């Protein structure tokens, strides 16, 4: 009988890539979806949809019936909300309910998708899994939510013997970013020529399909309780925007802006967003985070899992091509 895997968040960007990777490996793939989920990312896939909510232990228990392996990818991935505490509640309650149900169901092995958001970036140098945030040092509701959820999973591994490996994707990009994610919005706005300026910061870019592959390497080879960064290459924001512009046939942004004068604009954008409900392009927390170059090392995953990632330029190419082919540009 074919082993069953459950992927939460499979309608989303990373979750859909994990579900596709599961099918490619021949697993019977069950996907947990909210009733309102946009199902375009799984359209045409031979998956078994189950309606439920990651925060509801009862629905998770039903979804996990007969499941051998669990990938908990689902998350409330917003950098802004009218009520920032809602993001923290969703991700923490999700981790609590999913892990409790998985332990009760006797799931053999779990891969929990955390994020480098729970790690403390340096001032230009790449950091590894040992650079840990505290609830007091972390910036923004989303990052704090991932930190709290990750600590909850670690606690259950230690105290309850939860058979879980943690992975921390850096900044995934590539095809099927249907929402799009905050990074996807940067790509589309730049490709449309609507992002003429930048601040001095940096990211670690990785192809979403390499992140999905890393999930299965963690399933097969990861050590229980360990955290593995699934990243690609470090790149400054200026370089990233220039390459996106070149792919789209646009002029690269040339104006480097200081952060200070941007804070009033960010506060204004957030005030407007509270009226409209639409996530602002610029937030005060994003400006605070941009003081750091969010550079990360995947050496541990390379050494222990055999993880590799293609050049970030190919991921940008795939992202811009997909956005263009699907009407985002």
Characterize the structure shown.
The protein has 329 residues and is of the alpha/beta class. It has a domain at 4-173 and 207-231: NAD(P)-binding Rossmann-like Domain (Rossmann fold). It is 42% helix and 16% strand. It has helices at 13-24, 57-63, 84-105, 141-160, 182-191, 208-221, 237-247, 262-276, 284-289, 299-305, 312-325; strands at residues 4-8, 28-33, 48-51, 69-72, 109-113, 164-169, 171-173, 197-198, 202-207, 227-230, 233-236, 255-256. The longest helix is centred in the N-terminal third of the chain and has 22 residues, at 84-105.
Summarize the structure.
This protein has helices at residues 13-24, 57-63, 84-105, 141-160, 182-191, 208-221, 237-247, 262-276, 284-289, 299-305, 312-325, and strands at residues 4-8, 28-33, 48-51, 69-72, 109-113, 164-169, 171-173, 197-198, 202-207, 227-230, 233-236, 255-256.
| CA-based gyration radius | 19 Å
Q: Helix segment count?
A: 11
Structural class: alpha/beta
Overall morphology = globular
Could you say what the CATH architecture of one domain is? 3-Layer(aba) Sandwich
Fraction of residues in β-strands: 15-25%
The CATH class of one domain is Alpha Beta
Along the chain, the helix and strand elements come as EHEEHEHEHEEHEEHEEHEHHHH
Strand order of the largest sheet: 3-2-1-4-5-6-10
Any low-confidence stretches, pLDDT <50, length ≥5? none
Give the helix proportion (percent range): 40-55%
Distance from first to last alpha carbon: 45 Å
CATH topology of one domain: Rossmann fold
How does the major sheet shape up?
7 strands, parallel
Mean pLDDT: 91
Q: Could you name the CATH homologous superfamily of one domain?
A: NAD(P)-binding Rossmann-like Domain
- Number of extended strands: 12
């Amino acid at each position: 009988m074919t082993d069953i895997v459950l992927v939460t968040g499979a309608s989303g960007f990373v979750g859909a890539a994990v579900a596709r990777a599961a099918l490619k490996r021949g697993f019977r793939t069950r996907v947990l979806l909210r009733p309102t989920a946009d199902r375009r990312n799984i359209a045409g896939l031979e998956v078994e949809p189950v309606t439920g909510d990651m925060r509801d232990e009862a629905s998770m228990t039903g979804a996990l019936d007969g499941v051998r392996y669990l990938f908990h990818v689902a998350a409330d991935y917003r950098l802004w909300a009218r009520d920032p505490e809602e993001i923290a509640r969703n991700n923490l309650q999700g981790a609590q309910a999913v892990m409790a149900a998985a332990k009760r169901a006797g799931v053999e092995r779990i891969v929990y998708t955390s994020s480098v958001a729970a790690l403390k970036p340096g001032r230009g140098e790449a950091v590894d899994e040992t650079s840990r945030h505290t609830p007091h040092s972390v910036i923004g509701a989303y990052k704090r939510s991932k930190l709290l959820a990750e600590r909850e999973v670690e606690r259950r591994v230690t105290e309850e013997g939860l058979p879980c490996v943690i992975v921390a994707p850096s900044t995934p990009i590539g095809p099927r970013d249907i929402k799009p994610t905050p990074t996807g919005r940067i790509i589309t706005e730049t490709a449309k020529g609507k992002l003429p300026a930048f601040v001095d910061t940096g990211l670690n870019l990785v192809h979403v399909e390499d992140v999905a592959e890393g999930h299965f390497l963690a399933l097969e080879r990861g050590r229980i309780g360990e955290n593995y960064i699934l990243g690609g290459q470090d790149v400054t924001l200026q370089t990233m925007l220039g390459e996106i512009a070149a792919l789209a046939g646009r002029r690269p942004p040339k104006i480097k802006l200081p952060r200070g004068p941007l804070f009033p604009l960010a506060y204004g954008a957030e005030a407007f967003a509270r009226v409209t409900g639409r996530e602002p392009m610029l937030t005060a927390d994003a400006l605070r985070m941009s003081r750091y170059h969010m550079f990360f090392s995947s050496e541990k995953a390379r050494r222990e899992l055999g993880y590799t990632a293609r050049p970030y330029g190919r991921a940008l190419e795939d992202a811009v091509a997909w956005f263009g082919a699907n009407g985002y540009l």
